[in-house]
Amino acid sequence: MKRHFRIVLGAVVGLTSTPAPLPALSRDAQPRAAPLILAQTQSPEEEELLRRKKSEGAKRDEQRAPRAERPAQRERAERPAAREREAIKRRGAEPEPAIAEERQKRRKEREAVKRRAAEPEPAIAEERQKRRKEREAVKRRAAEPEPAIAEERQKRRKEREAIRQRATEPDAPAITEERVKRRKEREAAMRWPENAARLFDSAKEKPVRRKPGDAEPDQPARGRAERLPESDAAAQARTSRDPVQIGSVISEEGRRIEPPRRERPELPEGAELVREVNNRFIFRTNNTYFIERPREERFIIDAREVYYEELPRSRQREVVVRPDGTRIVTIRNRWGDLVRRVKILPDDREIVLVYVEDDYYDEVLEWRDPGLDLPPLDLDIPVRDYILDAEWVEDPEDYYTFLDQPPVEQVERTYSLDEVRRSARIRDKVRRIDLDIINFEFGSAQIPESEIGKLEGVAGAMQRLLKENPGETFLIEGHTDAVGAEVANLALSDQRAEAVATALTNVFDIAPENMETQGYGEQYLKVETQEPERENRRVAIRRITPLIAPVASSE
To answer: Are 441 and 451 a contacting pair, CB within 8 Å?
Structure first.
């Protein structure tokens, strides 16, 4: 495009604009020469075209320019969006503080749960821990061999028998008139009531319905002249001629199974299931009702682990692991009868609680009372030497002296725990303590808190016996009066026996595996009456160790 230039003087006429008036000059002031100006002139169309091109070029330059070279207003407008994007990226990379704290809290909780699962005793209170340590100390002391204990017990037993013999002599010089008077008064108070039931439980049972062809027991009645056994070993002399070889209870391989359901696996011939009451099964066989529980719930309280294994010949093994590592191993046969129970200490020493050869039971197809092969029991000893009435105990030492005595007749063989429970004739071989000092309300199995202290004397005797022999087993029997239905009384009596065993464990630390419970309802009344009678609502305790375990195994 051509450009036209003109030389114009400051005062040239022809300019489109009117020149501004010049300021007045002083007289002395001289006018200066006007400058020479080069001016560029354009047509309006050219100026508009140039302006548009500049605007378009500026826009292209702005689009091609980097972010730092953009105009300031555009950069300020985009600054919040950029900050927001950066914040979103940071939040995506780093969790919010509240979320991080919550995650950390859940992680710590999971780790705490894992630690509690790995540690055996995190939730046990100090008092329970203290009692457990005391029990372990007692077990350690009991496990240590103490040959002098047996001699000391034998010596004390002989001294007691000598005292009895002197007491029966009419002119015994050691017995004063005052002592004779007190003894007579006490015997008069303890005299068997006129309406008392028979002495032995086996004499109170209903006649057994025999099958055609079954013969009556042909053994002669035992004479009164036969001497009482002097010890448990003497009572088992006929069965322990050959040493009993007992293998380890865990030596046999088993297959892990799920916990069994609350039902009896099989019923032998002659047994009939009557009903189920509070997880207890009531059966009828040989014209007699009896009750049993598939599992002892007392054993698994505070257990660290409980598992079951299937053994050959349809047997089953239950293992209860205590928090201190002690294991209680129980083996049942195909009928659910308990044939073996062993306590395995943390150092793998085994204490036999129940042992009977179970080969015989593999061929038995019906429940049969082993007492049917024995003659009626006939003893020539005072009643007080066979039954200790807790109501007339003056010295707690009497409980220990009484429970420490051996059976009253020979033990033909070791019996299973279920045989002892079902057979009154077999139970009659050992003495019993009648705890009629515990007052049960009519129709109730609850022990009032005020009555629990009355168990302290017998609990102390049990603790002393367990210290001498950790393999002792005590049978806790429950009884009711004759008011009410027979089946309901059977379930109530079983609950009463379990309530006493639970109190002995919780309050006096008697291990649950050293106690067995069984209810007998109204079958064995102490006072022969169909009316409500407090003496019939009672609990009895027997030491049945010589009936269910070889003496050599406990020593």
So the answer is: no
Structural tokens at position 19:
């020149």
Please list, in sequence order, all residues whose beta carbon lies within 8 angstroms of the beta carbon of residue 555, skipping any fewer than 6 positions away.
Answer: 150, 469
Interstrand relation of 515-519 and 474-478 (parallel, antiparallel or unpaired): parallel
Number of domains comprising the chain: 1
Neighbours of 226 (CB within 10 A): 12
The answer to whether residue 33 sits within a structural domain is no
User: Is residue 23, in this structure, part of any structural domain at all?
Assistant: no
- Lowest-pLDDT range of 49-53, 197-201, 275-279: 197-201
Distance between CA atoms of 163 and 157, rounded to whole angstroms?
A: 10
The Cα–Cα gap between 338 and 351 comes to: 16
Residues 6+ apart with CB under 8 A from 394: none
Domain that holds residue 527: 128-209+226-242+275-293+367-554
Which of 132-136, 427-431, 469-473 is predicted least confidently?
Answer: 132-136
> SS3 of 64, please?
helix
Q: Give 390-414 as a DSSP string.
A: GGG--STHHHHHHHTS--SS---S-
**Per-residue pLDDT tens digits for 126-160:** 777 777 787 787 777 666 555 666 677 777 777 77
Dihedral (C-alpha) 544, 550, 552, 555: value to the nearest 10 degrees? Answer: -30
The pTM of this model reads 0.64
b/e sequence 204-216, b meaning 16+ C-beta within 10 Å: bbeeeeeeeeeee
Q: Would 429 be classed as within a structural domain? A: yes
Amino acid at site 120? P
Bridge-based pairing of strands 515-519 and 539-543 is unpaired
Convert 361-380 into a string of H (helix), E (strand) and C (coil). HHCCCECCCHHHHCCCCCCC
- In DSSP terms, 435 is beta-bridged to 539
According to DSSP, the residues that pair with 352 across neighbouring strands are: 342
Residue located via tokens 């047994």:
271
Q: Where are the alpha helices (DSSP H) in 190-278?
A: 232-235
